[in-house]
Amino acid sequence: MSSALSRHPRFAGPKGPVVLAILDGVGKGAGDEADAVALARTPTLHRLSAPEVSTLLRAHGRAVGLPSDEDMGNSEVGHNALGSGKIHAQGAMLIGRALASGAIFESAAWQKVLERGQRGAVHFLGLLSDGNVHSHIDHLEALMTAAAKAGCRRLYLHALLDGRDVPPTSALTYVDRVERFLAELSAGGVTAKIASGGGRMVITMDRYEADWPMVARGWQTHVHGDGRRFPDTRTAVLTLRDEAPGITDQNLPPFVIADAAGPVAPIADGDAVVLWNFRGDRAVEISRAFDDDTLTTFDRGRRPDVFFAGMMEYDGDLHLPRSYLVEPPTIERTMGELLAATGVTQLAISETQKYGHVTYFWNGNKSGMFDPATETYVEIPSDNVPFDQRPWMKAAEITDRLIAELRTGRHRFVRVNYANGDMVGHTGSMQATILAVESVDLQLARLARAVEELHGILIVTADHGNADEMFQRDKAGAVAREAHTGIPLQKTSHTLNPVPFVIFDPAGGTTSSAAYELDRSRCEGAGLANVASTCLELLGYLPPEELLPSLLRFR
User: Fold this and answer.
1) pLDDT (tens digit, 9 = 90+) per residue, 353-407?
2) Which of 166, 243, 369, 462 is the most exposed place for a label (fewest CB within 10 A)?
């Protein structure tokens, strides 16, 4: 375990706990009609965000290890940066490098894919878009091209439709592109087809074991070829949209592509399956379905003998999947690990939808605790309903439990994630998202009072934006509208906006006589990775030199 932290020579920390509240998906937007955060009534956040104790942080692009500043942040990389205090090259960047160097094709896992594919079929399963949050269509095309060149003659695609990290009804853009690509492969003597599909929030891509029936539906669709049949994917998408006006791609039901002989490509004995998603949270469960001999969460029925490989190792502690193409980033000496080594008690709490973010991703993609004697993890079960129907989610229940835990006096450092801004923002409902943000603000007021009573410090930030931009924008930055009706075009993806960073220290941190203040020179251009050092200093410890610097200056 890492060496213990040294005490700060000029600041001992508060009498009470230091609490980091992560308002998931609550960025700082333009303040116009597209900005649900600005439209919401948030008196608590407004009151806490006095200029002398607040700033904005970068939460996208290179600031969180993504390839370019055109890449929106996400909860995975955001919590990696928050928890580690460092910037690590993340999935998309690692895969881009591995493809450019050819290292991905030299991996043992890829060689086994080719061995199977030269005798049987290779099935590629994943999210079909260029959202670059869970996957990228460029990676898929590179893998399929390489497989065809290596002599694999039957290549099949099981396409999960996005509409969440990309515009909500953009599926056919990617379907048409990949169909053209598959036609080019087929012209070279390869059978290359889409075999099945469905919306990402309906099949396959569950996370944190919130809805195993999603995975079961995906298994039946992709593996068994069981489901509603269509002659091609475009027909499937158009038909399913016609039957449910207003439905977005992420919610489209599963479908199977079939011809007169039946489904074109159920997964069979001797085949290879490649899950080309690179992000772990929504890849773990389907990986278990292929890899875990003891899985009992649903009846898999026929379980074909296949070689299964993920794009990356999705869980480093559970070693899922057993085989993968690209090594994930190595994240060591995270804030949680350093505090555990020092004997500092910690509490991590959220509801199911973000529980893994304040544990697994916070800890550098590690599932377990560093020290069970000093760490407490609390998961509040999420509602299993569309989140625009209950935009308050479990914010109140989280706060109830959090305040109860704080009053025990057992926890020195606390991290809590309120999922509402992100999960409801992804539904595209402006009304529901405004309510979601207001719900969090109400709970933030309760939390601030409790922290003040306990003589602690509350830090408020976010992992990325989402609720701050609910409508698409044109190239000039104006809200994009439907040509005939003038209705704003819905946006369900994350944003490139910065996120708030606020320190509430009622014992003195907001006065001119305080021991510290925000260092404005460090705040300029700062990002999420600066938060860990800041928290360590507020706890009364010196951050290790390898962490990005704190945002504080001590008087």
Assistant:
1) 999 999 999 999 888 999 999 999 999 999 999 999 999 999 999 999 999 999 9
2) 243
* Distance, CA of 30 to chain centre: 23
Residues 6+ apart with CB under 8 A from 42: 437, 438, 441
Examine the residue annotation and report whether 75 is marked as an active-site residue of this protein. yes
| Tokens found for residue 115 | 């061995």
**Residue 142 φ then ψ, to 5°:** -65, -40
Yes or no: say if 199 and 161 are a contact pair by the CB < 8 Å rule.
yes
Mean residue pLDDT across the chain: 95
User: Residues 107, 96, 178, 493: is their CA dihedral positive or negative?
Assistant: positive
Catalytic residue among 6, 54, 68, 75: 75
Class (C level, CATH) for 92-326:
alpha beta
356-384 core/surface letters (b: 16 or more CB in 10 A; e: else): bbbbbbbbbbbeebbbeebbbebbbebee
All CATH 3.40.1450.10 domain ranges in the chain, comma separated: 92-326
Of 238, 235, 134, 251, the residue nearest 198 (C-alpha): 251
Strands lying side by side in the sheet with 54-57: 54-57, 499-504, 457-461, 18-23, 413-418, 346-351, 375-380
pTM, two decimal places: 0.82
Q: Which of 151, 159, 174, 172 shows the shortest CA–CA distance to 124?
A: 159
Give the Cα separation of 274 and 283 in Å (integer): 11
Task: Tell me the pLDDT band of 504, cut-offs 50, 70 and 90.
Answer: very high
Residue 27 in tokens: 């960025």
With a cut of 80, say whether residue 316 has pLDDT above it.
no
Cis peptide before 43 (omega within 30 of 0): no
- DSSP conformation letters of 442-507: HHHHHHHHHHHHTT-EEEEE-SSBSTT--B-B-TTSSBPB-TTT-PBPB--S-BS--EEEEEE-TT
Q: How far is CA 131 from the centre of its chain?
A: 12
**CATH annotation of 6-89+331-459+493-554:** 3.40.720.10
CATH 3.40.720.10 occupies which residues in the chain?
6-89+331-459+493-554
Residue whose token pair is 């086994």: 112
Neighbours of 263 (CB within 10 A): 17
Helices 91-101 and 137-149 cross at an angle (nearest 10°) of: 30
d(CA 287, CA 215): 10
Please check whether residue 89 is in contact with residue 65, taking contact to mean a CB–CB distance below 8 angstroms: yes
Q: Tokens in use for 19?
A: 């609490």
For residue 239 the two structure tokens come to 């038909």
- The pLDDT, as a whole number, for residue 317 is 63
